[in-house]
Amino acid sequence: MKTLKTRPASAPQHLDWLAPEALPILTQIIVSNKGTLSFGKNARTILPEYVDIGFNPDCLQLFIRQAENQSRSFHVSSTPKKLAQLSRILQNQNIPFPAIFLFDQEIELEGTHYWAFSLKEKTEDYLLRKIKELKQSSIQNARCSQEMIDLLGLYQSSIQNLLRTTSRSIPMEDRRAIGQEAFIDAVIEYNENLYEFSQFAMTYVKNTLQKAGGSYQYTFSETCTLDGRSPYPEDDFSLYRILADAHMPDVDFLLEQEDFLSLLSEPEQTLLQMSASGYSEKEILNACRLSSSQYKQMIISILAKYQNYSV
């Protein structure tokens, strides 16, 4: 019989003790397509035992107050109640079921205390319809509305993916601003009788970025010569523009390549990181205590190292 040899355990120098985290319990009210109304556990905790329920179709919010007449009110702790009238209103608004309302805030109106619950997700069709209504009175109000912000939120991921692959000669911060403004313009110009919204909006944003890219582009041979001189003013010497005109990836992509970053000196890595964060040449010079010629020589060095790295 073999004897297992074990080494004595040694206590680690440092341990980070981990504590379990409870999953958040949402304060919510759920409405089914058949009008069944269910109060979540947290909602039953914060609300009075008997409540009256009102619905604002303009902002898709439930307003709840303490009941004045218990016989005609909702008992929040009992079994789910039927509220077919509310489900019909939600169906007319094209709200998907189950509709989930999350606790938003407590407010005081004309001496009455209310608990406000907002719809968890507003649909694209609903937001476009509300923006269209706002446009009829004021285009500016429509552009700055909460509905426009919510619609931007729905398309945030799609816009970000487009920004990563389109007009990379434009610094990312500028791309984000141009893309957001183009998306808002697309919403304002959208006609549901002619186009499908998603395709129209993304095409509009892409075309706008491509048009804007022209003003950022300079030829590589002119902008970055071998001796580091530039015929353009100091604030026109952009690492983003140089990379694009040299047919190289943008700064954000380079920062994701660990093998390439290991080839760079610490100052060169700092320059890349600050460029990706949207700092201007002047800000980088001041922060890194570089002269203009040193800054340009570092860019040339980065370009040369990448060209060798990519071979």
Describe this structure in words.
This protein has helices at 41-46, 84-92, 124-137, 139-143, 146-154, 156-165, 172-189, 197-213, 220-223, 239-245, 251-255, 258-261, 266-276, 281-288, 292-310, and strands spanning 28-31, 36-39, 50-56, 61-66, 74-75, 81-82, 99-109, 112-119. It is α+β, with helices and mostly antiparallel strands and 311 residues long. It is elongated.
DSSP strand (E) fraction?
5-15%
Give the distance, in angstroms, between the N- and C-terminal Cα atoms. 59 Å
The helix content, as a percent range, equals 40-55%
- Rg result: 29 Å
Structural class: alpha+beta
**Number of DSSP strands?**
8
Low-pLDDT runs? 1-9, 217-237
Largest sheet: 8 strands, antiparallel
Reading the helices and strands in chain order gives EEHEEEEHEEHHHHHHHHHHHHH
What is the mean predicted local confidence, pLDDT?
A: 77
| Gross morphology | elongated
State the strand order across the main sheet: 5-3-4-8-7-1-2-6
> What is the number of helices?
15
Topology:
Layout: E1 28-31, E2 36-39, H1 41-46, E3 50-56, E4 61-66, E5 74-75, E6 81-82, H2 84-92, E7 99-109, E8 112-119, H3 124-137, H4 139-143, H5 146-154, H6 156-165, H7 172-189, H8 197-213, H9 220-223, H10 239-245, H11 251-255, H12 258-261, H13 266-276, H14 281-288, H15 292-310
Antiparallel strand pairs: 1-2, 1-7, 2-6, 3-4, 3-5, 4-8, 7-8
